[in-house]
Every structure is written in C-alpha cells, then in structure tokens.
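Lay summary

Proteins are chains of building blocks that fold into shapes. Our project writes down both the chain and a compact code for its shape. Here are two examples, one after the other.
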Amino acid sequence: MSVPDAAIINSLRRLSTATLATILSHRGITRVFMHGVAPLPGSRPRLVGRAFTMRSVSSREDKVAQDRSMPPELNLQRRGAEECGPGEVLVIDCRGNAQGASGGLILFERMRVRGCAGVVSDGGVRDAYDIVETGFPVYAKAVCPPNSLVAHRFVELQVPITCGEAAVYPGDYIVGDPDGVIVVPAEIAAEVASEASAYEDKEEFIIRRIRSGASVYGTYPLTGDGLAEYEASQRSKG
C-alpha cells in the first residue's frame, strides 16, 4: 500500500457511510450505496479498502461439469481468494441473486490470514456464524448454505462490476459500517475524505449541543448563536 493510499484509508476508517453518502451527494454522485447488502447477522464490522472485483453470470448446466473438473488454479473463486491483495476488499457481483453462496469460511479464512480487508457480495454467503466468529468483515445480501454452482458462474476478475446496484471499478475505495457499504470513486477519494472529516467534526458539535438540551432550531443546521459557538470552538482549536 502506498503512503497516499494509507492516508486515505486511515481517514475513511473514521468516517460513517452516512457522512460519505452526504458528501458524495454534494458532488452530484448518488448511485454509490449498495442496496440490499448488509453485515452478516450478529456482526458490526468496519471495512475500508480498495476494490478487487469479481464478476459472475448465471449458472448453466452444461458449464457445471466443466467447472467441477477445472484445476483449482483456474477456478476464479479460488483465484480471487489468492489474488485479492492485503488491504483490498473482494467485491463480488452476483447480479443480486442470493440463491447460491458466493463464498464461505474456507476461502474467506484464507483471505483473512493473507491480510485482505474483507468481502462484499450482493449474493449469498454460507458458513455465516463461523465467519462472524473470526471477526473478518463480510457483507452480503443473505445467508445461503447452497454452494455457488446453484446460481453463479464466476467469469472475470478485476473488471468494472455492479454490486448492490452500485458501479464498482477496480481500485475504488470501499467503506463498510453497520449501516451498509458505500463506494468512494478512487479519483476523488482524498478530497471526499477531507470534506467528510470536516463535516463529521461539525456533526459531533451538533450532537453535543443537542445532548446538552439545545433545540434543533439554530442547531440543525447551525445558525445564529449556534453557528457562532461552533466557529468559536473551531478557532480555539487553531
């Protein structure tokens, strides 16, 4: 990981998906939240890393036997587990179909041991309880014990994909929290992280003011005395 990458990831790690969605919407970018993709039941993970993508098509019976006989080195699920780099997030395009698992404990444990940042899939995931026990961040559309061959044939790595109705390009920044997963385009990630950090500083001030008994009027948004108080607090930090 380069120094700029590490700095961006460290900044994004402190930010919520809600804040990032707001900042990206200010830039006119709204189709970046992954709909229907959530943390595995019983987990509250945080995930940040650059996207390593895997694309699927629907399974078809005449290809299943061919895929079963394939050497492990050519199987894209296994290649994804081995080639997704340390600090990267494997993002799996399952076309929103959760009838077959896009992965499970063995592959994801290999990724955890290798230092990958996590997995995001808009399909199913099996072995959910055991995965949660490891602490490895995994987000999916549903828990699904049947294996991938029921629904998916994985056909490409490191190409643009759609996951949870959001476009993901290799190298985009992926941020996950208990609310879900959002995509931060790589080209603007540094600026978005900086703007979002400033936005969250202001929101923390607003929350403190609300908790002290202040009305939402003048506090959310900050105006009048509330704004003056916030600006004074910022000057005192400088």
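And here is the second example, written the same way.
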Amino acid sequence: MADDERETLTRWARRQTSSQALALRCRIVLESATGALNKDVADRLGVPAHTVSRWRARFVRSRLEGLTDELRLGGPPKTTDDQVEEVVVKTPEGTLKDATHWSTRSMAQRDSTDNGLRPER
C-alpha cells in the first residue's frame, strides 16, 4: 500500500463526516495491511471474516475507489413525470372535505370521484 493511500484511509476512518460503513472499510484495509489474517482482523473489528475478505479484495482490485459505495440504480420509477406534475398542480387547488392535508390515498380517491374539494379560504 502506498503512503498516500494509507494517509487517505486513516483520514477517512477518523473523519467525523465519513459514513460508518466507509470508516469500517478503511479500518479493515488498514488492519489487513499489517499482514494480519482475515480472521484476526474480523475478531478485532467485530465483523465476519467474509466481510474482511470482500473489502480486502475490493481494495486490491480497485484501490481507494473500491471502498466507496457503488451507485445503485434500483428499479425503474413507478411514477411518471407527468403524474408527478399533475399532483403538484392539483394539490394547491383546494383541500379535501373533512381533511387537513393531502395523502396519497386522498389524492387517488379524488381522482376516482367527482371533484371532492372544498374551496380555499
């Protein structure tokens, strides 16, 4: 491990603004760099040995960039931009009878019935 990588890992592990997950990954790599076995690092840090193995391998493969969270795209959005715009436009038009605020259910119910609004005061 290069000195600048060690300095960065130490800084990330101690930094107050680092996520706990990133700080743990940094500590795993720093402990591993001492030549300790995965089991020993795992015992010292209170994590499973396979976690140590995973982050150690990712560091070897991708260096510092391998320790940051990867972008997770998730599934496709279930709500279209047009649907969002429609809700944003409709919401300030009034409030539901006998209600103090909109909910997803009241918005859906309003769309399936007649207007259902009381005028704004």
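What can we say about the second shape? The CA atoms of residues 13 and 20 lie 8 Å apart.
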